C-alpha cells in the first residue's frame, strides 16, 4: 500500500493553501504537525478526495485517486475536524445509517458495528442518543464510522481537539493499534498526540512540507539548540525578548528557563534532552507568541 503525492498544490483565489507538496506514505501512523493555517486541513481534504488539487497528482498504488472514484472511497476512512451527527439517532442507528451510505450489506453492517463498538468501548452506550454523548464519546463514534468499511487509508483531522487527557490517550492508543496494516494520517497541532505513535512526522508551514522524518531524527536535528538556563525574575523579560522561551519553571532553588536557540543564550546555559514541544517551538515560535 503506497499513497503518493507529487507536486500537489491547492489555490484559493490569490492564496496558495498547499504549495507543491511531494511525499510518499506506506503503512503506519503519520503525524501532520503545524500551526493553524499551515495547510494541514486542506491537504487532508485532498487526500480524502473531498477537494481536488489545483495542480499535482495524488495516487494510490500508482493510480490517480481522481480516476479511481468509488474504488478509492471503498478503501478510505475519513474523520474530518468537524463531523455532523443526527442528535436524535442512537449511536447504533447512526452507525447503521453510515454503513448503508458506504454500501455495507445489512448483516455485514450489524456484525461490523458490534465489533467496532467493542473496539471503541461504546457497546454499553449503543442505545444512547448522539445528542447526549460527551465530546470524547462522539469522537469515538467518529472513528468507528471511519472504520466501518475496514479502510486501508484512514485520515483523521484534529481528532483530539477539546478532549480531556484521558480521552486523548485512549484515542491515540486506538489509532496505534489499528495502524499495523493500513496508512493512518493524523493531523494535529497537539504534539503529544503523535509523540509516541507516529512512524514519521510531516511538518507543514505556510502550505509547504518543510520536514518529514521520524520523531527521533527530527528531535536529533535540534539537539544542540535546547537549553536550560538559571535566571532571576528580573532577567526573564530580557530572555523572552531575545529568545524562544518554551517553559518557565519555578523551583525552591530558583527559576529555570527552557530556551530554544542556535547559540548559547547565557554562560551558565546547559543543553537538555529535546522533546516534540521544543520541535514545535523551533518551527512555529511566531504562532506560539501570538
Structure description:
With 290 residues, the protein is of the alpha/beta class. It has two domains: 3-219, P-loop containing nucleotide triphosphate hydrolases (Rossmann fold); 223-273. Helix content is 33%, strand content 29%. A hairpin with a 2-residue loop joins β1 and β2. The chain starts with a strand and ends with a helix. Keywords: ATP-binding, Nucleotide-binding, Transport. Residues 3-231 form the ABC transporter domain.
Q: How would you spell out the order of helices and strands?
A: EEEHEEHHEHHHEHEEEHEHEEEH
Side by side, the strands of the main sheet go 6-7-8-3-9-10
At the fold tier of CATH, the topology name of the largest domain is: Rossmann fold
Alpha-beta classification: alpha/beta
What general outline do the C-alpha atoms trace? Answer: globular
Question: What is the gyration radius calculated from CA atoms?
Answer: 22 Å
Q: Level of helix content? A: 25-40%
CATH architecture of the largest domain: 3-Layer(aba) Sandwich
* Total beta-strand segments: 14
- Uncertain spans: none
CATH class of the largest domain: Alpha Beta
**Share in β-strands:** 25-35%
CATH superfamily of the largest domain: P-loop containing nucleotide triphosphate hydrolases
What is the domain total for the residues?
A: 2
Output mean pLDDT.
Answer: 91
Distance between the termini: 40 Å
Count the helices. How many? Answer: 10
Strand count, sense and barrel status of the largest sheet are:
6 strands, mixed
Amino acid at each position: 500500500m503506497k499513497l503518493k503525492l507529487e507536486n500537489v498544490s491547492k489555490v484559493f483565489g490569490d492564496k496558495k493553501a498547499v504549495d507543491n507538496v511531494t511525499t510518499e506514505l506506506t503503512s503506519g501512523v503519520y503525524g501532520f504537525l503545524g500551526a493553524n493555517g499551515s495547510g494541514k486541513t486542506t491537504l487532508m481534504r485532498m487526500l480524502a478526495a473531498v477537494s481536488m488539487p489545483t495542480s499535482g497528482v495524488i495516487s494510490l498504488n500508482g493510480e490517480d485517486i481522481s480516476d479511481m472514484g468509488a474504488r478509492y472511497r471503498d478503501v478510505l476512512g475519513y474523520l474530518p475536524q468537524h463531523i455532523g451527527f443526527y442528535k436524535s439517532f442512537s449511536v447504533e442507528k447512526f452507525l447503521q445509517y453510515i454503513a448503508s451510505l458506504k454500501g455495507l450489506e445489512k448483516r455485514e453492517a450489524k456484525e461490523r458495528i458490534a465489533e467496532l463498538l467493542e473496539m471503541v468501548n461504546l457497546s454499553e452506550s449503543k442505545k444512547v442518543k448522539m445528542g447526549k454523548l460527551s465530546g470524547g464519546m462522539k469522537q469515538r463514534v467518529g472513528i468507528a464510522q471511519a472504520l466501518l468499511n475496514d479502510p486501508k487509508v484512514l485520515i483523521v483531522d484534529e481528532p483530539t481537539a477539546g478532549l480531556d487527557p484521558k480521552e486523548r490517550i485512549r484515542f491515540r492508543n486506538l489509532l496505534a493499534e489499528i495502524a499495523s496494516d493500513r496508512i493512518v494520517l493524523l493531523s494535529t497541532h497537539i504534539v503529544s498526540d503523535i509523540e509516541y505513535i507516529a512512524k514519521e512526522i510531516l511538518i507543514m508551514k505556510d502550505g509547504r512540507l518543510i520536514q518529514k522524518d521520524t520523531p527521533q531524527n527530527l528531535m536529533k536535528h535540534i539537539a544542540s539548540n535546547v537549553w536550560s538556563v538559571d535566571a532571576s525574575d528580573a532577567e526573564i523579560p530580557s530572555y523572552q525578548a531575545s529568545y524562544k522561551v518554551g517553559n518557565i519553571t519555578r523551583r525552591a532553588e530558583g527559576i529555570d528557563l527552557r530556551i530554544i536557540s542556535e547559540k548559547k543564550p547565557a554562560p551558565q546555559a546547559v543543553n537538555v534532552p529535546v522533546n516534540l514541544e521544543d520541535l514545535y517551538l523551533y518551527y512555529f515560535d511566531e504562532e506560539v507568541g501570538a
